[in-house]
């Protein structure tokens, strides 16, 4: 039992519980229905504190590179104050490679100073003892991306465990790398005992080819069979994978699953302070809300993309790439039509 925060979100009709130490998160609607959205503001903010990344992967949805810029510390302070006021509980720091931000440790500390639990994902480069110590002191979780050469991720897992940190592995799943995902689950059993979870993220075709999008078929079914056999660590999925999760069959605990949370419980802020429902919209939508001119809460309540996103998630057929089968699908209650923005769903 850690340090629980219980909040009555009266305007939104539900109660939330958040364990700041363990990360457990519960929403409870007294009427027994699923809470749809937090009307007052996001519970989780995804913040790109930089677009700098030394790896320059060709599939990066932000096309991050060595010329990428860094969010100014004063700008981070501006948004973290607004976030606290809006009731944000957690920030997921990303980029780019966030730990390469020159003020990264201060950013972690400032988040905690404002009662917000930070977490982050690294590509494995630029991790220092100071950063591991600050991670242990301030963060709820950290993750490392599983990209070749895997030695980077393996080194992070090893060094983090010396600080008592169990990291998550983030694995971006596309049509071609399903065999590597299965290999990670089946052949790296010792390594997986030292991590918390593998989180599989659905590939999004932003700055890269849509030929890599996951499709239905035997390969993905075999992948889910491997998932079901895993015993030595937890497995998670980003909500962008939701339309594939029915393939888990009875192996899925429905209470632990939620559909796309963008504009319902989470939002994204870019390194130049533009607010969007989700990070993957940064480079496809010109409608980011400038947080130097508008408040986070106003953007959340009234921003055009936010209102549109909630509408897309509230009824079948409203997605950008609508799926006729959603109208009669028995999984709609759980899935809500998959991703409302990208054509990355199993049933497209
Ligand atoms: S809009 Fe699509 S890509 Fe963005 S968080 Fe939702 S499911 Fe994922
Ligand atoms: S048909 Fe629609 S609701 Fe059903 S699983 Fe596919 S995307 Fe989800």
Keywords for this entry:
348 residues, alpha/beta, 2 domains, 3-stranded antiparallel β-sheet, 13 strands, binds iron/sulfur cluster
Describe what this molecule looks like in 3D:
Helix content is 26%, strand content 18%. By secondary structure, it is an alpha/beta fold. The protein folds into 2 domains: 1-35; 41-335, Alpha-Beta Barrel (TIM Barrel), CATH 3.20.20. It has a 10-stranded mixed β-sheet with strand order 10-9-8-7-6-5-4-11-12-13. Strand 2 (14-19) and strand 3 form a beta hairpin. One iron/sulfur cluster (SF4) is lined by residues 243, 246, 323, 325-326, 329, 331-332, 335, 337-338, 345-347.
Question: What does the radius of gyration come to?
Answer: 19 Å
> What is the CATH architecture term of the largest domain?
Alpha-Beta Barrel
H/E order of the elements?
EEEEHEHEHEHEHHEHEEEEHHH
In angstroms, what separates the terminal alpha carbons?
A: 43 Å
Strand share of the residues? 15-25%
Count of discrete domains: 2
Largest sheet: 10 strands, mixed
Overall mean pLDDT stands at 95
CATH superfamily (homologous) name of the largest domain: Aldolase class I
GO molecular function: catalytic activity; iron-sulfur cluster binding; metal ion binding
Keywords: Iron, Iron-sulfur, Metal-binding, S-adenosyl-L-methionine
InterPro entries: Aldolase_TIM, Radical_SAM_PqqE_MftC-like, rSAM, rSAM_sf
Domain Radical SAM core: 39-238
């Amino acid at each position: 039992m850690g340090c629980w925060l219980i909040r009555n979100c009266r305007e939104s009709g539900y109660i939330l519980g958040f364990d700041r130490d363990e990360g457990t998160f519960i929403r409870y609607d007294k009427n027994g229905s699923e809470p749809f959205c937090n009307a007052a503001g996001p519970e989780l903010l995804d913040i790109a504190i930089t677009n700098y990344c030394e790896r320059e992967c060709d599939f990066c949805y932000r096309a991050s590179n060595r010329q990428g810029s860094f969010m100014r510390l004063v700008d981070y302070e501006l948004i973290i104050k607004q976030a606290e006021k809006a009731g944000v509980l957690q920030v997921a720091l990303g980029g780019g490679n966030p730990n390469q931000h020159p003020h990264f440790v201060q950013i972690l500390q400032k988040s905690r100073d404002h009662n917000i639990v930070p977490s982050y994902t690294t590509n494995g480069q630029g991790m220092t003892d100071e950063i591991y110590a600050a991670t242990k002191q301030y963060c709820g979780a950290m993750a490392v991306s599983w990209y070749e050469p895997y030695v980077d991720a393996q080194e992070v897992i090893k060094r983090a465990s010396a600080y008592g940190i169990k990291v998550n592995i983030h694995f971006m799943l596309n049509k071609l790398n399903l065999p590597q995902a299965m290999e990670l689950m089946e052949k790296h059993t010792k390594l997986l005992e030292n991590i918390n979870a593998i989180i599989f993220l659905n590939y999004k075709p932003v700055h890269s080819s849509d030929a890599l999008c996951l499709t239905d078929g035997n390969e993905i079914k075999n992948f889910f069979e491997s998932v079901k056999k895993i015993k030595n660590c937890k497995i998670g999925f980003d909500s962008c994978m939701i339309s594939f999760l029915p393939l888990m069959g009875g192996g899925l605990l429905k209470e632990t699953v939620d559909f796309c949370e963008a504009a319902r419980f989470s939002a994204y802020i870019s390194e130049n302070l533009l607010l969007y429902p989700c990070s993957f919209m940064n480079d496809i939508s010109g409608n980011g809300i400038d947080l130097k001119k508008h408040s986070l809460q106003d953007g959340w309540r009234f921003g055009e993309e936010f209102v549109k996103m909630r509408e897309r998630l509230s009824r079948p057929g409203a997605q950008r790439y609508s799926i006729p089968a959603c109208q009669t699908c028995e999984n709609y209650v759980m899935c809500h039509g998959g991703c409302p923005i990208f054509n990355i769903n199993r049933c497209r």
